[in-house]
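Example record for the data management plan.
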Amino acid sequence: MRGSALSAPTAAMVWLCVGGLSAASGQATAESIPRLVAQLKGSDAAKATEALHKLLAAGGQGEAAARDAVKELLQQHGRKWDDAHRRLLARPGPMGDPARISALVKSHARLAKAAAEVLKFAFDHGKYPVPTAPGGGWRPGKYYQKGQVLLEGRVEVAIGIFNQVECELVGAFGVKLAPKPPGGGGFAKDYLRGELREPQTACPILTYNLVDCVPAWSQIGGFYAGWYRALRQAEAAYDRAAAMAVEAGIDAAAKSSKLPGLVLATAAVFSGDAELALKHRPADGDERKLFDILVRRYVLVRNARQRGKWSPADKAPLRQLNLYRLALCLDPLAANDKLHTAALEHSQWMHRNRQAGHGRPERNLRTPTHRCWAQGYRAAIVENVSAGSRNPIWSWRADASHHRNLLFGTLRAAGVGRAGRFCTYNAGTLLEDKDLARLLGVSGSPAMRW
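Corresponding structural encoding:
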């Protein structure tokens, strides 16, 4: 009786060693092999490694199952890597064609030449003065009118070239834009002929038909980002399978990308992977110039994705301003939540008090700098305000000082806030997004200059 009672645990232990996992060794047995193989093929890296060790330690059938499973994983993830690689390589784009890259860069250089002429004139206080009357106040005198007309002629030329260049650039990636001729009163034509005359009335502010490239670049970026993510996931899975193959004593072929560096860098940019974008960024030449052009288009895509307190009415003026700055070969301004909050709060204050201006009675909010610093943004600041304008960006172009606040070359970030009929624009020289700053090649908070 006592002998049979003592033999029961012994029998149970024998069964454990034969049919399941050995309590002492933790090794795989015949019944546990399928479960461990499924675990090895799973997405949990730690559990997969643990299953591999158990199968290899079991020897015989377990080791053979482990080797077969690892070979299957290598083939599976290798096919996914090849597929993602092939799809990225097949994406339309000029990346693999040096002649196409050179042509695009030359077109952009033509735009840069026209843009430089605009900026040189816009910041010439003698040719483009602030319209003030002798006793103070705003009065667009004859001399000012002439400066405005001459500036508009140069702007229209630059925007006409920008529209052509943008369509050409986007078209190189397989996306078509309908080109829109620049609006206005034929200033560009008269300017090129040298037939501009001083008008008798105040110069009209032109609303140019800028090609809106944001939807196109969002589409291009979506293609690149999607296949880039698939490639990165396949790379990670293949590398994990290759590491297990080494432990199992299996030769795994190394996967090396044959994609041009510019393709990988562009895909990384639109995926928000600054580290890899900087790693594959071309060092110099036309490829580097094209990369810099694409990064600046990415800023507009990034701004379009802005959420939180940014309403469509707040994002629209910034988008229009950035298209204008791109047409003048200036860096687009990154949407900044702190500047947006400061601008929105000031517009709400003006709306409540039914008055427009830069001053406030509160001591810690009395200037634009105070208001932006109160939100935590500490850098050089410019501010424009408007009341009753449907299109504040173009209204600010009617005044030289407000216009220059849109065009300073050292501006990096901005916020626009609207409340009722009031609108505030704040921009500063500090780009707080460090990854974006590295991609754009900017650092610190420079002084205000064009």
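Summary line stored alongside the record: The beta strands are 334-335, 381-387, 413-419, 422-428.
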